TrEMBL record:
This is Uncharacterized protein. Keywords: Coiled coil. Residues 61-116 form a coiled coil.
Length: 121
């Protein structure tokens, strides 16, 4: 029995070409899926690495903020101590100036007494 004409065309060179093209397309599709899968995994790895680095930087940032706060407190304490010492220095300088003035007055008075004593001799 002979096959009908349509069925014979189904197994023709054109059909074989279509089947090969379909096979090639399927193979290409599978390679694209595999490539996209691998690229997606690489992207996920990169995102995880970025997240881990961000967390590390966040911890370091928190530590640096703590250090900055501590150093600012120390700076304020030192500044206050410096102001207190400068005030004490100014007071001491004023006292020294007052004492020097009193000393000069006493020296002058002593010279006067010596002169009077010499005159009385």
């Amino acid at each position: 029995m002979t096959q009908p004409k349509q069925l014979q065309n189904w197994t023709s060179d054109e059909t074989i070409y279509i089947l090969r093209t379909l096979t090639d397309l399927r193979s290409h599709y599978n390679s694209l899926i595999d490539t996209n899968y691998k690229e997606s995994l690489k992207l996920l790895d990169m995102l995880n690495a970025a997240r881990a680095k961000w967390l590390d930087e966040s911890v370091e940032n928190t530590q640096l903020k703590t250090t900055i706060d501590r150093l600012e407190r120390q700076n304020n304490e030192i500044t206050n101590e410096l102001r207190r010492l400068n005030d004490a220095l100014r007071q001491a300088e004023t006292q020294i100036a007052t004492l020097l003035s009193a000393k000069r007055g006493l020296e002058s008075e002593l010279i006067e007494y010596k002169n009077r004593f010499d005159q009385l001799k």
